[in-house]
């Protein structure tokens, strides 16, 4: 198939999914533009604050669209093009986007509470304990995997000869590896990330303290993004990966503690300018590949013994490897942890919730077509799955972006590759800081449930509740690489999506509303991901990785406990509410 045609068909399917199925689900939920949201009724200027729709979409999209839809499809293409493409397109329409929008809606209707707190109100304290514990473990796994990925991305390098760069040039810094000069593409992204972070508080002050117009904030954000890249070209920063992990831990501690308008929201808005440009560029590059006659350079199916040995059986490991590209439980935490507290009007729920997840699927599609059309399967295997040594999925994506922009839009290969690594870094950092802030919310909720109004003084401190998950994340990130954490992260991430849909089903049953669009994907995802977790327990144990094996076993126990509690609800209290076509009220 022609690469460009494949991309256009994919985008058309997603658009139809939003116009028909997404809007239908919104009507079944009961979205009401005239109902006040928690951002207004519980305004506090720290966590609850109405955001302009454009700013909120940018914050939400940059928070949910992390390394998952980039690294996940990059790894999963090992199975071949067709399985990954089918799951990304159909999975997001029927499961992922429904999950995100439903979680956002439930949180808004429950006063901006997290999905864990909604679970407590619908399934009681036992169900809440299981859900909250599972969600906290997932946040730590996400942050640990992405912190290591960030360190890998920011220290990536590639032979200068492949970019056509002469050793005598002075624009790009090079270092010699095995007697050959390499371009330090990660160093550019490193400096760019630091500059964008330093610009964030200024933009946040302008928007939320000086009430600057949205257009001015957009211009400043775009200018800041471009400026950060230029600074990175001239002063690329090169540090040891472990040092980068330490710096990331310090940053996310600050981001979890300070008001959301000071760092997270404005940094997301600065960074999202690059993300939008990246999506548009990759789409245009893919279409350009098609116009130049490039076809998909990958087998449709590649479920070989080698692929199974590396990733696992097609079912269930395809679904958990793709991870956020089709469905993500972490999105429910973000939607109900930060986004729901900023939605100014319920009419924005379908656009931010369902539309935001579709946008993430577009990113996953860009990755897929860039690899199979721009990079090529042979080079993909060489970089991502080498016979010896550690693969580098971030580098594979960056080169795929570079070759796509080079072949499709005639942009020099080096600049397209640099843009790819900066794009990936932006997705990584904006999710790490978001999940750490969510971890603080979840921990604070847990203390309130445990002690009520008598929470010990030290546990009321935002700094302490921010420090706890950061320390746990650092311990895992320093001791385990992303390739070892990824299967566990993917399985737990997808399973949390299933558990969130179970909570949504219970809530909808209690409200006597249509619920089959939630329960059917919940059942499918539960069976798939529980199987994946069980297999991960055995695999990590056989590899003598007892820490991850125990973690997987603990997550499996928490998930099973939650599902048992949910089944008890339906058996004891839900008999009279099982009406599949109940009218939405």
User: CATH architecture, please?
Assistant: Up-down Bundle
Q: Report Rg.
A: 23 Å
**Main beta-sheet strand count, sense and barrel state:** 3 strands, antiparallel
Helical content, roughly? over 70%
How many domains would you count in the coordinates? 1
Characterization of the model:
- With 585 residues, the protein is mainly alpha-helical.
- The chain has a single domain (3-575), classed as Sodium/glucose cotransporter.
- 73% of the residues lie in helices and 2% in strands.
- It is built from 21 helices and three strands.
- The protein has helices at residues 3-29, 38-41, 53-64, 68-76, 81-109, 115-154, 185-208, 214-234, 241-257, 264-291, 305-311, 314-322, 329-337, 349-375, 377-384, 393-409, 413-451, 462-479, 482-510, 516-542, 546-572, and strands spanning 158-159, 174-177, 180-183.
- Strands 1-3-2 form a three-stranded antiparallel beta sheet, with no helix packed on it.
- A hairpin with a 2-residue loop joins strand 2 (174-177) and strand 3 (180-183).
- Helix 8 (214-234) packs across helix 10, helix 10 (264-291) packs across helix 17 and helix 12 packs across helix 19 (482-510).
- The protein is globular and about 70 Å long.
- It starts with a helix and ends in a 13-residue tail after the last helix.
- The model is unreliable at 574-585 (pLDDT under 50).
Keywords:
disordered C terminus, three-stranded antiparallel β-sheet, 21 helices, mainly alpha, Sodium/glucose cotransporter, 585 residues
């Amino acid at each position: 198939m022609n690469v460009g045609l494949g991309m256009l068909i994919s985008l058309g399917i997603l658009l139809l999914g939003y116009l028909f199925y997404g809007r239908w689900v919104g009507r079944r939920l009961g979205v009401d533009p005239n109902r006040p949201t928690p951002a207004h009724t519980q305004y506090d200027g720290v966590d609850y604050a109405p955001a302009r729709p454009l700013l909120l979409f940018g914050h939400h999209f940059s928070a949910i669209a992390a390394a998952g839809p980039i690294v996940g499809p990059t790894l999963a293409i090992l199975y071949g093009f067709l399985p990954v493409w089918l799951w990304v397109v159909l999975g997001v329409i029927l499961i992922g986007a429904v999950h995100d929008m439903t979680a956002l809606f439930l949180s808004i209707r429950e006063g901006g509470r997290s999905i864990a707190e909604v679970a407590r109100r619908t399934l009681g304290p036992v169900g809440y304990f299981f859900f909250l514990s599972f969600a906290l473990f997932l946040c730590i796994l996400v942050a640990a995997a992405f912190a290591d990925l960030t360190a890998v991305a920011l220290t990536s390098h590639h032979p200068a000869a492949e970019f056509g760069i002469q050793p005598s040039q002075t624009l790009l810094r090079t270092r010699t590896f095995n007697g050959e000069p390499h371009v330090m593409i990660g160093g550019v992204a490193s400096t760019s990330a630091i500059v964008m972070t330093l610009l964030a508080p200024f933009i946040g002050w302008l928007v939320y303290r000086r009430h600057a117009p949205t257009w001015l904030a957009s211009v400043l954000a775009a200018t800041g993004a471009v400026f950060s890249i230029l600074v990175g070209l001239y002063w690329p920063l090169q540090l040891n990966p472990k040092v980068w992990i330490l710096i990331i831990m310090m940053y996310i501690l600050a981001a979890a503690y300070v008001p959301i308008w000071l760092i997270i929201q404005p940094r997301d808005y600065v960074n999202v300018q690059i993300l939008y440009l990246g999506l548009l560029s990759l789409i245009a590059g893919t279409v350009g590949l098609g116009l130049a006659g490039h076809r998909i350079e990958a087998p449709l199916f590649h479920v070989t013994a080698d692929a199974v040995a590396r990733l696992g059986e097609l079912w269930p490991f395809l679904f958990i490897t793709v991870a956020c590209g089709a469905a993500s439980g972490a999105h429910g935490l973000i939607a109900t942890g930060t986004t729901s507290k900023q939605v100014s009007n319920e009419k924005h729920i379908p656009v931010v919730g369902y539309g935001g997840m579709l946008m993430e699927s577009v990113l996953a599609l860009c990755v897929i077509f860039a690899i199979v059309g721009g990079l090529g399967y042979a080079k993909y295997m060489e970089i991502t799955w080498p016979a010896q040594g550690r693969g580098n999925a971030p580098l594979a994506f960056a080169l795929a972006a570079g070759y796509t922009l080079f072949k499709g839009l005639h942009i020099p290969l080096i600049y397209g590759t640099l843009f790819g690594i900066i794009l990936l870094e932006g997705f990584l950092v904006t999710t790490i800081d978001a999940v750490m802030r969510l971890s603080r919310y979840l921990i604070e909720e847990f203390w309130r449930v445990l002690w009520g109004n008598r929470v010990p003084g030290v546990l009321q401190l935002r700094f302490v509740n921010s420090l706890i998950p950061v320390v746990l994340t650092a311990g895992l990130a320093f001791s385990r690489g992303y390739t070892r954490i990824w299967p566990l992260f993917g399985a737990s991430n997808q399973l949390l999506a299933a558990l969130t849909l179970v909570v949504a089903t219970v809530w909808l049953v209690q409200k006597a509303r249509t619920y089959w669009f939630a329960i059917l994907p919940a059942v499918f995802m539960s069976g798939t991901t529980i199987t994946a977790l069980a297999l991960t327990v055995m695999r990590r144990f056989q590899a003598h990785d007892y820490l991850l094996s125990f973690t997987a076993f603990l997550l499996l126990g928490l998930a099973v406990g939650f599902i048992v509690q949910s089944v008890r609800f339906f058996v004891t209290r839900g008999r009279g509410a099982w009406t599949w076509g109940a009218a939405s009220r």
